[in-house]
Amino acid sequence: MKIYIIQLIIIIFLIFIRNKITKKQMNIILFIYFIFLAIVAGLRFEIGTDYINYNNIYKYSEILIKDSPKERGFYAINLLFQKLNINFQMSLMIFSIVSNFLMYYGIIKLSKNPAISTFLYLATGMYYSFFNITRQGLAIAFILLAIYLLIKKRFILYYIIITIIALVFHRTAIILFIVPLIMKINIKTKYILLTFITIIVAQYFNLINRLVFYINDILKLPYGMYKEKLLESVGVNPLNMVIPTLLIIIIVIFKNQLIQRNKVNKLFINISYIHYIFTVLSLGFIYYSRIAIYFELYILILVPELNIIIGDWLETIRISSSKYFKFLNGKYGIFLDIVIVLLFFMYIALRLSQGIYGIVPYRYSIDLF
Q1: Domain segments of the chain: what residues?
Q2: Entry pTM
């Protein structure tokens, strides 16, 4: 676990020195840091819940590409690696480099505070999840690039093309075609709260799971294999709801300020709503969390924005009632950085120590050739 703690300590250090260096210098340092992240992930050996599964995909890709109806693109890439005499360990390294470079590029282009966003990439567990969900990790990284192109360049066609590429790696990426449709929608808070309450109640009575498979039976979709598990309500730990719930409350409170700061935040606010809905659904069936993780990208963008907004809000309170916040002496940025770091560091340290990702202790192999 030491290597993961070192990763976290380095990025925390960068958070607190970011105002001492230029934006260009920070981007260069973060590029080097992401190389470090890619190497650690790429050298992993026999750790992670899906390591054996991906090894088997590599070994039997020629058979899978013929017999399996799903993710044939990923099998084709593995088959190509075999034909080029690229071994399994090197294939992991290549996938790791691609996914981490795309995450780096998306973060420096979209985030107001790339250092905090990079910390959150690790501390939310997204980076460590990619050790297990290699295919989906690649899809998520491509989607972050697609969102950047959609926002900054207004290239809807590029978004669609990249989403199709993401589908090559994981079919669940199909849900991301919804993103361009919610880009400019401003949903009233009362409707959002009503939706959340409805989803929570429906999930409590297992109504949504039953509805999903009723539709599956009618349309004869190929997902009946999940029916028994879903109706048994095998879900994620309810503690997983703590941070998403805290964040969604803060986002709802500061929604107007977020939109005033940047109209683009409207998209990420809507993405946060979708993430929360699927996180609630995952309490009843764990596979909904596979969909939720696509929308978890909002955390990387909105938390740095909220950091600024809440700092301004605290300054307003200090002016009107200085005795409550006098001890901060206007240093709200540092104070909020500490709060974010402590909250998420404790969260990820606990999950790593509990073996949630199956990557402790870290083992590696340098057999790349």
Answers
A1: 1-181+337-369, 184-296
A2: 0.90
